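Sorry to interrupt, but I need a hand with the structure work. Go ahead and set the record down below:
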Amino acid sequence: MSLRIHEIAEGNHRILNPFTEEKLMLLGEVCRLRPGMRQLDLCCGKGEMLCQWSRRWSITGVGVDISKVFLSAARTRAAEMGVERGITFVEADAGLYKAEAHAFDVVSCIGATWIGGGLVGTLTLMLPALKEGGLVLVGEPYWIDQPPREAYARLGVKEEDFASLLGTLDRVESAGLDLVEMVIADPNSWDRYEAAQWWTIHEWLRENPNDPDAPAVRDYLAASRRDYLTYSRQYLGWGVFVLKAKER
């Protein structure tokens, strides 16, 4: 899926993953955030996590994303919530971004582990920015159950791209990290993320029938509805995993 289609499909979303606001705030509580903590959020999207957490727990942070559209929304949201002085948004490829070393209490990448070629690679590139004793937050799909063979092609993934929950733990541990907590999406939060896109795209197509990307957007809408209802909703889970470096 192209960045443009992402920007269109998620045009009315504030959280660009299958999390409700309640789960997002639960995650903040789980992380035991407190004033003065600093967060680096790679592939920050519209910055909702940084903005919400900054307002609630008085943290500061840096959000990195490649999308001008999402970053514009993030800066507007920060101003709306009165937290713009404490949060900086940077336009950059998150996989190549060179953060200040050992400068952040929390380093997050929520639902974008492609930036490091998968979960383990992404965890590896996140660690240099983390303070000793800090938290790594990674949002990642997992297989609830083994899907039929045709599902991989339909969902645009390889079988090995994701693992079961237990397999995800194995991957985390292979990167030298301990799983200390997690917050998992449920069918309702998945529906709110996926199904809400269908209406957004429907309206965009009605308003932009002659846009050069309209055929690709129309194809994406048709495929995403069918593939979500046939495969994703049954076989694919998603969660945010809270990690700490293993004790030496």
